[in-house]
Amino acid sequence: MNAATPGPTSLATEFNPRSTARVTPRVWLPPLIVAVFYPLLIASFPPAMAAYRGSGNIAAAACALASILIAASIPLLAVRALVLIRHQEGATLSRGFLYLMCAVPSLFTLFHTIAGRVGIIGPGRGYTAITLLWMSAWLVVAATLHLTTTTSAMSPHRERLPLRVIHGVAALCVLCGYAIAHLVNNGLALWSVELYGAALQFLRLWYRSEWVEPVLLALLLVMVCTGVPMVAQFSRQRVDRFRVVQMASGVALGMFLVSHVSATLLARSAGVETNWAFAAGPTSLLDATGLAGRLIPHYFYAVLNLSVHVACGLRIVLLHHGVTKVVANKVLFGLALAGLLGTAVIMAALLGIHVENA
């Protein structure tokens, strides 16, 4: 038994009823408020940026920055709430919705993609319909959380070893066969979009080949299908902070993959080239129009969630193999820091910074 999956003894040591928040609106309301108004926050970014570029008004720039920072705060607020109720009896439903809130940036991007596909949004239609649908859905969530009074006992700890092994093997194959090379390729855009494009064409010989691409897509499906029941199981258990972060980053990462892969495949089916312009727009995400500003928090958390989720999983493996908690934690924080640096590099390129053009 390890620190990431506490048994009765370790759990009794960590659990302190005085430090555990009750599942009241005060716990889940902050991230839920941001979730409800997320489309409005995203929609306010482009006009504020346009006002700043047109007049140099610092107040407009501050409004643009504030809208994105508030929108991007929702995963952090949700994780904070999950940590507060990690030992609370009968909080399964609250945990489930809070984990979903961790994935709001990518969930909204997926929602936008689907809305465009079915014709809810498009040229001349505006974004009123998608905003009302989104806000209505989250208001239903709020009502559900507020009205739900049933409680249930926490389930005993059980390791879903087959699922965990299948999930880990699939993730390792995707990391080695696609994700690492893809992220390095995105990082090359910090030097120049041309360098990124040349590397992209080379890498596509591998991951878009006739046999490799279907396997990668199947592995992604396996990761999602094995990850969901594990999150559901751990939502019924008392867990430590590391497990909360692992589950939150996993849910957000899974939603990002579903959203990103769906958008890419739909664009390819429509004959759209999924290159740098597809990801960042004609110039950068700072020049986004409509609801394209949604991609800023969507991309920001992608690399970070990947590194944190992998690091938490590796920590558990290391503890199972006799590595001390101190060393395992250092490995986790080191990988998380590497993910943060990778996020900074890729986001700088997406926001229009290219060394060769400086």
Provide a descriptive summary of the structure in words:
By secondary structure, this protein is mainly α. The protein has one domain (8-149, 159-357). Helix content is 72%, strand content 0%. Mean pLDDT is 87; it is low at 1-21.
Write a concise keyword list for the protein shown above.
mainly alpha, 358 residues, 0% strand, disordered N terminus, 16 helices
- Main pleated sheet: none
* Main structural class: mainly alpha
- Helices and strands, in N-to-C order? HHHHHHHHHHHHHHHH
Question: What percent strand?
Answer: under 5%
Please give the domain count: 1
Rounded average pLDDT: 87
Number of strands: 0
Molecular shape: globular
Multimeric status of the protein: single chain
Distance between the termini: 53 Å
Specify Rg, calculated over alpha carbons: 21 Å
Portion of residues within helices: over 70%
The total count of helices amounts to: 16
Q: Would you identify the regions where 5 or more consecutive residues have pLDDT less than 50?
A: 1-21
Short description:
With 358 residues, the protein is an all-alpha fold.
Helix and strand topology:
Elements: H1 8-14, H2 25-36, H3 38-43, H4 45-55, H5 58-72, H6 74-84, H7 92-102, H8 104-118, H9 128-147, H10 161-187, H11 193-207, H12 212-234, H13 241-269, H14 276-280, H15 295-320, H16 325-350
Helix pairs in contact: 2-6, 2-9, 4-5, 6-7, 6-13, 8-13, 10-11, 10-12, 12-13, 13-15, 15-16
